[in-house]
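User: Can you predict the 3D structure of DUF4270 family protein? Sequence below.
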Amino acid sequence: MRIQSLGILLLCLLTSCFENSYLEEIPEVDLEDDFSIRKIVHSELELGTVFLDSLVTSGKTSMLLGSYADPVRGHIEASPYFEFAPESFAAIDESRELDSLVLVLKYSSTRYDTLQSFRLKINEIDEAFDYANEDEVFYHFESLQTKPIATAEVQVYPVWDSVRVTLPMEFGRELFGKLKGAQSILSSIDDFRDAFHGLNLEVEGSSPLIELSTDTYLLFYYQEKNETNRYSEEMKISVSSSLYSSKTFTHLEMNRDATPFANRETKTWIPAEETGDMALADELGLSAIGLKLGSLTSIGEIPSGYYVAEAKLVLPVKRLTYDGSLNPVAESLDIYIQRKIGLLDGYLSQASLYSLDNEFQENTYFLLDATSYVDDKIRGGEPDSYLWMELMAGEALNTGYLALGTNSSTQKPRLEIILIPLN
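Assistant: Sure. Here are the predicted C-alpha cells for DUF4270 family protein:
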C-alpha cells in the first residue's frame, strides 16, 4: 500500500512539472522516502566570438547592395556583380533604333533606414566573368575589373519591389547595336557574354542594405526608323533567364574599427568579456558564437545515480543591438558541437527565438534544448567540446546578425537542469 501511494505521488509531481514527452523517457524506479527533484541553474558559462576568413557569396538566390555603419557589426559595404542572359536569341532588325535603356533593379527586402536617397554607381564588367578557383565559386573578397557607365540618385521604398534607372544613351546605343543584324551577339550565349560581361553596382556614401533579386533585368525600348506612326517595342535581358542561368556574387568589405570587435584576428577565440559582454554571429561579417559550459561532472556526483530530465540553455540577446523595424533580430541559429575551430564534430539542433521584447529589450532570448549534450557532459564525456552557433544558412545571404550576452545579473546566459536522483 505504501509503494502504491508513493507511485501516485510521483506521477502527480511529474505531471505538474514536465510535458508528456519527458514522462515517456523517465525510467521506472524503486522509490524511498528521501526522493527529490533538483533544479540546477548553472551560469558560469563562457561566450566567445570567432571570425572566419572567407564566405562564398556566389550561387545564391539574391545579391546584396549597400553601405551602412552599424555600431555592433561595423561599416559594411556590399557590391554585387552579375551577368545576363537574353530571353530570346532572335536578332533585332537593322531598321530599329533605340529609344532608351532602363536597368530595373528588383529587390525583396531592405535593412536599416530607407528614408534618404543615395548615389548609385553603375559599372560595366570589363573582363571575362570566370571563376578563379577549381571550386567554381566566388568568395566575398573577390572582384572583377570594371569601367563606369553612370551614377544616379536613387531611393528604395520597402512597399515597392523595384527601382528603375535610365542608362546613358551612348552606352545604350552601343549595346543595342550589338544586338542587331546578321552580326548580332545573339547568335549564341557565348557570343553574347563575350561581348557583354555584365554589370557591377556600388554605393557612394551611405545607404540601406538591399537584397537584390536575380529577377533584375535590362529593358530596351526601341522603334522603327523614320516611321510617322511609330510604336514602341521592348526587349528584356535578365539576370535570371528562363534559358540560361547567370553567375552572380557579392563583394563584401567590413570595417570594425568603431566597434568592440576592432583589430581581432581570424580563427581566434575572443572572450565576450573583451567585447562588451557580448558575442556576435554575423554571416556577412564572417563571425560565429562559441559557448563553453565548463565542467559539469560535479553535478552528477550522486551515489545512487540520477536521470537528466531536461537541460535548457537560456541565451539572452544583447540590448541595443537590434531594432524592431529597421534592424530586426535574427530568429534562428544552427547549433553544432566542436572541439577545434574549423572542425565541427556534428550537428546538435536548431534554436529559435523564444521570447521577443522589442519595447524594453529586457526579455528577448533564445531557448535551446541541450539535454542529450548536457547529460553526456555531466557523465564526463566530451570534456573538450563546446557549442558552435551560426546564423542559419539559406539560399540567400543573411543580412541580419545576432549578439548574445549579459544584460543584467538576472538576464545572463545560463543552463537550467532538471535532475532526478534515483534514490
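Residues 85 and 188 are 10 Å apart (CA to CA). Confidence is low (pLDDT under 50) at residues 1-33.
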